[in-house]
Write the structure tokens for this entry.
Amino acid sequence: MDKIHWLQLSNDRKHPYRITRSKRAKYVRVKLSSHGELSVVAPHGVNARHAHDFLHSRADWVEKHLKDIPQNEPPQCPDRLVLKLLDEEWAIDYSGLKASDIRLHETAQGQLSIQGNTTDPDLVRKVILMWCKQKARIIFNDMLQQCAEHYGFHYRRLSIRAQKTRWGSCSSQKNINLNCRLLFFSENIVRYVMIHELCHTIEMNHSKRFWSLVAECDPDYKTHRKKLKSDSRIIFANGFWH
């Protein structure tokens, strides 16, 4: 899994980031999502040290734009993660408090050990979501490819995101995005979302033809769609994952 790094900001604060490689990238660039996820996108072959140095040279820019991201009242940090898709339950250990950074690693006892400033739920959320994205990238790649082959669809590439309001999307170039939070749902729900996006590789709309195509692949799609909405309200009830 991609390693989490830390960018030093003012007032002894640190912000997590990771380095991602892209075949399409022609130069190193900094990417900051609307909810604060930070990454350095670099072409293959670029030295990792150069990527780190480039981000640190842009620390003022990052800090300035982080201030523009709305900060809601922080909810309580979870004590466990229930990944229904994988039938896994991870207890979260918040021991080993340090200064201002957070580190996460998997223990032999099947726990996620989070060490650091756990008084900041928003920072904890970002670190856990990074872990979820890394885990989802492995699982979803295989699952989506199998689903596409089974139903006869073709897509170009898959990206894993942590969007607040969308479970998936498909571009006109047949690039599919899936939300890493789908790990919290059962397999039949995740498969429905994948089928939904794969159908968009043929029908880029929600017309009758689109829903007919979805129904051919998933006859129970209406039940799964309804379950997705109801489970979403339960899973995200305390607001930690928003």
